[in-house]
Amino acid sequence: MSTASREIRQRNEQFSTKARAGKNPINASRKEKLSKQSPLGLWALGLVLFVVVGGVFFEAIRLVFL
Questions:
Q1: Where is the composition biased (Basic and acidic residues) (predicted)?
Q2: Host domain of residue 56
């Protein structure tokens, strides 16, 4: 028996064990995990980047014209 067929058999066994136990036998996708996550952190990061980039841009304009 090759290792590939042994791995497939082992994964099938794990899948059926989880399914019989009533648990979700498949792992959630990245998209599903991100949809459950709060978007507040992303908004905060965007705000910080906006302030920093805006400050750098403002200082560059100030140096050029003054």
A1: 1-12
A2: 3-65
For residue 14, give every residue at least 6 positions away whose Cβ sits within 8 Å of its Cβ, in sequence order, or none.
25
Determine the Cα–Cα distance for residues 8 and 33; give it in Å rounded to an integer: 26
Domains of the chain: total: 1
pLDDT of the residue at 1: 60
More confident residue, 34 or 8: 8
DSSP string spanning the chain? --HHHHHHHHHHHHHHHHHHHTS--SPPPHHHHHHHS-THHHHHHHHHHHHHHHHHHHHHHHHHH-
What pLDDT does residue 36 have?
A: 84
